[in-house]
Amino acid sequence: MRYDRSVRLDTDFATAVTRTREALAAQGFGILTEIDVTATLKNKLDHDMEDYVILGACNPPLAHRALDTDRSIGLLLPCNVVVRRDGDATVVQALDPNTMVALTELDALRPVAEEATRRLDAALGSLTAAGAGSGRHEE
């Protein structure tokens, strides 16, 4: 089962991170956290890896609806958005919101997952359409 919604961009990493933040904001997602995985692994383990950041994105109305349905759903909210280098390209990935429904089998989460999917897909799609470099949508 695929659990991600991804786009591949022909742009530099810093530009991709900035445009991802903007695209998520345009769809009602705020960035609550940012984890620079590359720097963390270098500082803690002296391990070198490609550019990799995890943005903790949140759409409060959607999160509220999901949490009202199942308090444990916080474990599966599609909050993490990964921006990472992959060869000469940058990949932007989000958890597929339908994973919440598939794993919990709670039909009450389906409308939340559908709206979250529409918003995430719009954000990801705008990255390939708004001058972020040519891109390929990988669902």
UniProtKB/TrEMBL annotation:
One Pfam family matching this protein: DUF302
Domain DUF302: 35-97
SUPFAM superfamilies in UniProt: TT1751-like (SSF103247)
Annotated protein name in UniProt: DUF302 domain-containing protein
Taxonomic source organism: Streptomyces heilongjiangensis
Phylogenetic placement of the source organism: Bacteria, Bacillati, Actinomycetota, Actinomycetes, Kitasatosporales
